[in-house]
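FORM 12-B: Structure-to-Sequence Request
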């Protein structure tokens, strides 16, 4: 045995030499940056199973400065000075040692493996020889050359306008003068893109200057010759005689035919040149020498006009020349930039290489930056998904951005005009990769790209005047080559989105610096491309029918394609129309795909997504003001305003006497008001681009529908059929509550025999309907409406409040006597209210859904108030002395001396009934009187601070309830816990101090609100994202929510025995008032429900992603997230829908069920429901609680509190297995019939086995629910048996 153990230890030590440091992997958020996996690679290639000595030495280098494996005989020693220095440097340069290790583990997984590069290098060598030996093609007409190549199956990608028969110039081909590996692959800074994208190997093929003429910069002649050159190479490679086993295709950056390049993707054949395992593809990019080019560079300045089309060309492009300027004088900045990009690949390669030599951490910092950007959609989107518009092919910009921060800024006259006296100071060249990465984020978060151009420092100064860039480009970032604006064509909204992402990342890093959270997965590993959790509203637009109202051919030619021109126009028009309603307008769409050689031009996706960040101050404004005709009579401004809005614009007089051009958006409900931004987008797209309503889709209406009462009920409150109800909604409920509060306080101020013995100090609301977070907007139930509603729509939810009297020594010191005094107080209040307030009904209620407290210690006395308007309230009395009395019983301090401590782990089992009753009463006291009022106040404050908070909570509660997981009873998720989870998405440290500031002072700081959801839809998606990833079982302390400020008064903690005996929940949601995080999760969710929540959240997340890709319909997509599957339940109990007072709140409501039945069909329960209004009366809920209490040891039962018409039951699996009989087993059982042969030789006491009597239990449930239960369905493996 000793030898065997030694052998195993030896094997274990050898295996540790082969292990690699791997980055942490999150559930459901597998990074697209990861490779195919080491395990799969080892299966594909046998040489990967064991590493050679060189690889082991390389692996040890990865662990350098971290730790060294010591042999068993080596004694441990203190860290050396070198080790301490390494640890100190890691902490100073990389934020922490752990962060440094995570970065070192990440980079090898996102970069190509060196051992797989040799096949590519061999291929490139043979390919270089092949290109150098290509035969020349004599000059010929471009159309003749195109027809000749088309016979070989290759189309020439001539950009618009294509050459015609009248074209005088010719095309030709000669062997390339130079072939150079350029781009990130040559500089070893390649990073794997999202999805299944491959590494890009850019190969610059320099075209001979003799093929071009001086005037080729005009009207696309350079691009036409470049296209023919590329097509000739494509035809040669695709020829079977070439000997290359590759797939050849075209791809156009930004879907611009002028930027077309060849893509070579290898086929697996096992040859020495087969580089399929590298997961790379070669991009052939035709270039032109910048030194001996015949094209004069001064003709390519941003303000130069190089598109000079004739009137005939205008007519062929459906443009009215009479309304256009002289095309020969219009600048063509995007056209000129596209031409300049063919001149800079070599200079870019050299500049990056030079800075890599001077800044050691440059390559790693660039890799981190690219990983961060890819995770947020600033790059290729992969096969499925969308990316931010404008960043396709912007790889050089990320490197130039780092170069700008390291080298500094070029002084320009434009900078001085903008008030920038000094240049940006360069960063130190000895910074770590993490410090450089963070410096880039800081720059992106603070720099104003709209108003501050950037010119990277260069040796000889920039070639073109800064004013030319400023007059022709929205964003200016000129690289060190002093020729190209690297951000040309990038929408301003995309840069604002990048700015918001950088600020959010910095906030994540900074907030994690003071807490135990690890920001690395959030910054680098998590996929942040989900649209619904990223934007306040996402609008799906179909451009297949888009036709600009005023076509601009010059803009189309300058943009490179019609689709690019339309998207640029959409971005510009939406920016004008939405104005300050939004902070950011981002357009997202799939990145370009490869196309066959027979297809000349790219096929552009006609589906785009428009994401908006709301400005909560102005987003839902109903009136847009235009120019004032009296104070500012500018006919041009008036004409522009009317051209933008068309018939929607009108001249209006306002209360101050001003007459202003205006646009008014009429709304009838609050839900319609939140749709104003989407209505503006739909109107503008229809007016200016002819896109109908069916082509503009959002998902807001679907979410609004699940929070709204059905039309069959709401029509009695509003509209023409309204029955005279004064007001409905949250504000009406608050006004009614204020009236009740005033009436109760008036009783304490009376004198005489009817006066209250003590004065009322405070009345605190604790109802969700009074803090704007109830799922449905509260409505009263007056007799006028109750008389016409069917029984299954006659429900009113009472609103709870707490009454606090002044302190007095006259309160008894006996808990049972305290409850009697409370009852007397409430009875006196009820009598006084009915005498004072006309139409008010009040009653004292004793007991709750679990029955009357027989011991008399629990607080089960309540005051029910129903006012004439139909609002219902429930009041309780708070007496602070109760906590002390309960603690005495729990701690048993009166039964022993103070210095005597009893140590008995079975003490709780040996206590009497009073002890256990006191435990339950103490928990209820802490929850109802200590935490509930404070929780109510802070949640109400959140509603006023963040407009989207209340809607987020309402949708979240609806989601939990629709999946049968919401409720205060037992193992479900409490409504307060849902509110806390939603608050986590909005609050941060010291948020209350910011909320108390004057709003006028903070309007300039609204950018911070980009970090929090601006709409309920985004808030809900963010909550689902958190729930699907929340590892509650690994977080011992749970999550902390800074809901309360530092000035919160300390509260007395309840005895530990309360949580020990009653606590079954596994979630811990901590706040400053609840340091243990168990007040609102004391009873649930338990482990089973918590895992169920996570599984449902993951399924909901997939549904949200399907909605992004338009895989589901608008209404159906939302409803599918709230459609609860019942296949996993053992038993489904169906309820009679006609007898459920809350059925009208059902998420899958059958409108036909909301109808009156004939009186003869009514049973006793239905007749009782028709007699009078019963606040909070729900037979389904009462039956649910009874079954839960009676069969708590037999099964788990689930139910939707909002009108659910089914119960779901899951049997305890342990009860299905035969077990020995015992008295008081706690469940209904039947005898297990054993085989006589098996029972021979056994003792008689071992033969009596029992198991769960499922049929007996279901029979009892049917009898208990008679009148409410309509059927019971059993889900079994073989068949379904129904008992009716």
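FORM 12-B RESPONSE
SEQUENCE OUT:
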């Amino acid at each position: 045995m000793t030898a065997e153990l030694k052998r195993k230890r030896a094997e274990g030590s050898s295996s540790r030499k082969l292990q690699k440091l791997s980055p942490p992997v999150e559930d459901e958020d597998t990074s697209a940056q990861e490779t195919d996996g080491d395990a799969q690679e080892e299966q594909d290639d046998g040489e990967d199973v064991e590493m050679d000595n060189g690889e082991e030495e390389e692996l040890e280098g990865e662990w350098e400065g971290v730790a060294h494996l010591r042999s068993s005989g080596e004694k441990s020693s203190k860290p050396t000075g070198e080790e301490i220095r390494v640890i100190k440097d890691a902490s100073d340069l990389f934020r922490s040692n752990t962060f440094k290790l995570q970065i070192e583990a990440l980079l090898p997984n996102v970069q190509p493996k060196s051992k797989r590069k040799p096949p590519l290098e061999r291929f490139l060598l043979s390919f270089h020889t092949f290109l150098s030996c290509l035969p020349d093609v004599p000059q010929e007409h471009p159309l003749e050359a195109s027809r000749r190549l088309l016979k070989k199956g290759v189309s020439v990608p001539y950009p618009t306008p294509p050459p015609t028969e009248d074209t005088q110039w010719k095309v030709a081909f000669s062997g390339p003068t130079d072939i150079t590996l350029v781009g990130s692959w040559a500089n070893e800074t390649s990073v794997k893109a999202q999805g299944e994208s491959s590494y890009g190997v850019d190969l610059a093929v320099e075209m001979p200057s003799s093929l071009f003429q001086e005037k080729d910069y005009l009207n696309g002649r350079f691009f036409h010759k470049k296209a023919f050159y590329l097509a000739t190479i494509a035809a040669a490679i695709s020829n079977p005689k070439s000997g290359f086993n590759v797939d050849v295709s075209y791809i156009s950056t930004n879907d611009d035919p002028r930027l077309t390049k060849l893509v070579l993707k290898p086929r697996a054949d096992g040859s020495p040149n087969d580089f399929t395992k590298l997961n790379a593809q070669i991009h052939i990019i035709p270039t032109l020498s910048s030194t001996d080019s015949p094209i004069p560079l001064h003709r390519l300045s941003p303000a130069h006009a190089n598109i000079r089309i004739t009137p005939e060309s205008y007519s062929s492009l459906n443009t009215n020349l009479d309304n256009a300027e002289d095309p020969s004088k219009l600048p063509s900045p995007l056209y000129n930039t596209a031409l300049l990009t063919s001149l800079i690949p070599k200079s870019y390669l050299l500049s990056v290489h030079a800075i890599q030599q001077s800044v050691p951490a440059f390559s790693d910092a660039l890799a981190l930056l690219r990983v961060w950007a890819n995770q947020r959609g600033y790059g290729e989107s992969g096969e499925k998904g969308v990316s931010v518009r404008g960043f396709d092919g912007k790889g050089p910009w990320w490197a130039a951005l780092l170069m700008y921060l390291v080298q500094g800024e070029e002084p320009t006259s434009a900078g001085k005009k903008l008030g920038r006296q000094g240049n940006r100071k360069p960063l130190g060249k000895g910074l770590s990769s993490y410090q450089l990465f963070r410096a880039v984020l800081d720059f992106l978060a603070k720099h104003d790209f709209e108003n501050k151009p950037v010119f990277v420092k260069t040796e000889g100064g920039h070639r073109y005047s800064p004013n030319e860039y400023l007059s022709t480009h929205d964003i200016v970032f000129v690289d060190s080559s002093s020729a190209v604006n690297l951000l040309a064509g990038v929408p301003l909204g995309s840069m604002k989105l990048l700015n918001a992402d950088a600020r959010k990342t910095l906030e994540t890093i900074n907030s994690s610096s003071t807490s135990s959270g690890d920001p690395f997965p959030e910054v680098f590993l998590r996929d942040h491309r989900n649209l619904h959790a990223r934007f306040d509203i996402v609008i799906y637009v179909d451009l297949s029918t888009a036709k600009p109202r005023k076509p601009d051919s010059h803009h189309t030619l300058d943009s490179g394609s019609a689709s690019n021109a339309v998207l640029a126009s959409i971005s510009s028009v939406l920016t004008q129309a939405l104005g300050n309603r939004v902070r950011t307008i981002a357009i997202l769409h799939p990145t370009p795909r490869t196309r066959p050689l027979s297809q000349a031009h790219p096929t552009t996706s006609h589906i785009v997504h428009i994401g908006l960040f709301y400005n909560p101050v102005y987003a839902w404004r109903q009136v847009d003001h235009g120019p004032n005709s009296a104070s500012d009579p500018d006919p041009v401004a008036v004409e522009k305003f009317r051209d933008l809005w068309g018939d929607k614009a009108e001249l209006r007089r306002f209360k101050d006497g001003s007459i202003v051009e205006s646009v008014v958006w009429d709304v009838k409900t609050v839900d319609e008001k939140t749709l104003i931004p989407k209505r503006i987008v739909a109107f503008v797209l229809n007016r200016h681009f002819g896109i109908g309503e069916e082509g503009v889709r959002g998902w807001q209406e679907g979410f609004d529908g699940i929070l709204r009462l059905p039309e069959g009920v709401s029509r009695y409150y509003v509209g023409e059929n309204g029955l005279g109800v004064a007001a409905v909604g949250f504000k009406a409920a608050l006004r009614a509550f204020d009236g009740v509060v005033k009436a109760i306080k008036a009783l304490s101020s009376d004198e005489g025999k009817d006066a209250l013995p003590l004065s009322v100090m405070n009345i605190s609301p604790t109802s969700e309907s009074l803090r704007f977070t109830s799922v449905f907007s509260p409505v009263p139930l007056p007799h006028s409406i109750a008389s016409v509603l069917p029984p299954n729509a006659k429900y009113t939810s009472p609103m709870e409040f707490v009454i606090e009297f002044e302190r007095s020594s006259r309160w008894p010191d006996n808990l049972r006597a305290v409850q009697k005094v409370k009852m007397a107080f409430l009875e006196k209040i009820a009598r006084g209210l009915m005498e004072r307030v006309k139409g008010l009904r009040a009653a004292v209620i004793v007991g709750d859904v679990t029955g009357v407290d027989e011991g008399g210690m629990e607080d089960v006395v309540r005051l029910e108030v129903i006012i004439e308007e139909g609002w219902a309230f429930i009041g309780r009395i708070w007496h602070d002395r109760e906590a002390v009395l309960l603690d005495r019983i729990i701690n048993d301090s009166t039964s022993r001396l103070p210095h005597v401590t009893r140590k008995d782990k079975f003490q709780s089992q040996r206590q009497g009934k009073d002890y256990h009753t006191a435990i339950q009463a103490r928990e209820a006291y802490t929850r109802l009187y200590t935490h509930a009022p404070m929780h109510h106040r802070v949640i109400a404050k959140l509603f006023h601070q963040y407009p989207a908070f209340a809607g987020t909570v309402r949708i979240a509660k609806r989601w939990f309830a629709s999946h049968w997981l919401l409720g205060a009873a037992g193992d479900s998720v409490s409504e307060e816990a849902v509110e806390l989870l939603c608050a986590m998405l909005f609050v941060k440290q010291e948020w209350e101090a910011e909320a108390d500031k004057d709003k006028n002072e903070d309007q300039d700081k609204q950018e911070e609100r980009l970090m929090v959801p601006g709409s309920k839809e985004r808030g809900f998606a963010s909550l689902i994202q958190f729930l699907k990833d929340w590892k509650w079982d690994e977080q011992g302390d749970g999550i902390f929510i800074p809901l309360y400020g530092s000035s919160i008064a300390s509260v007395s903690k309840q005895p530990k025995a309360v949580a020990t005996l009653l606590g079954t929940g596994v979630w811990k949601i901590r706040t400053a008032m609840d340091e243990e995080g168990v007040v609102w999760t004391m009873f649930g969710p338990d482990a089973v429900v918590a895992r169920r929540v996570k599984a449902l959240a993951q399924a909901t997340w997939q549904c949200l992603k399907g909605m992004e890709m338009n895989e589901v319909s608008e209404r159906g997509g939302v409803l599918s997230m709230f459609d609860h599957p019942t296949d996993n339940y053992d038993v489904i109990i169906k309820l009679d829908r006609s007898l459920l007072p809350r059925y009208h709140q059902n998420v899958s409501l059958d409108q036909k069920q909301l109808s009156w039945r004939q009186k003869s069909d009514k049973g006793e329960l239905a007749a009782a429901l028709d007699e009078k209004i019963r606040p909070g009366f729900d037979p389904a809920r009462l039956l649910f609680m009874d079954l839960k209490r009676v069969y708590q040891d037999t099964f788990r039962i689930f139910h939707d509190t909002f009108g659910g018409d089914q119960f779901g039951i899951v049997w305890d699996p342990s009860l299905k297995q035969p077990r020995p009989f015992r008295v008081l087993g706690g469940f209904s059982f039947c005898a297990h019939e054993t085989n006589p042969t098996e029972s021979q030789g056994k003792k008689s006491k071992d033969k009596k086995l029992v198991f769960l009597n499922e049929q007996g239990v279901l029979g009892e449930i049917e009898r208990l629910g008679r009148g409410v239960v309509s059927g019971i369905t059993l889900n079994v493996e073989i068949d379904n048996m129904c008992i009716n």
